[in-house]
Amino acid sequence: MRKMKGAFGVVGSVTGAVSAVTSLKRARADRDKLLLANAIASIAVAVTGALLAVRSLKKGGDDA
């Protein structure tokens, strides 16, 4: 069950990253600095979430 939770975490992070990259492209095209800052922050959140999920999978799901 814990490994499944970790796998869903990775999938969720990948989905978030794809959305953030789409926002990044739109922000660059529109030259919108606020949207650009939001997209960069979203990418950071997605990367951090993926790393946490991978770490959880490696440790066997222990939340330490």
How is this structure best described in words?
This protein is mainly alpha-helical and 64 residues long. The chain is built from two helices and no strands. The chain has helices spanning 2-30, 33-58. α1 packs antiparallel against α2 (33-58).
Please specify the SSE layout and strand pairing.
Layout: H1 2-30, H2 33-58
Helix pairs in contact: 1-2
What are the key terms here?
single chain; mainly alpha
The proportion of residues forming helix, as a percent range, comes to: over 70%
> What is the CA-CA span between the terminal residues?
17 Å
What's the quaternary structure here? single chain
What's the total helix number? 2
The low-confidence parts are none
Shape, per Cα inertia axes:
elongated
Largest sheet: none
Helix/strand order, N-terminal first: HH
Radius of gyration: 14 Å
Compute the number of strand runs: 0
> Class by helix and strand content?
mainly alpha
Q: What is the percentage of strand-forming residues?
A: under 5%
Mean pLDDT: 86
Short description:
This protein is mainly α and about 60 residues long.
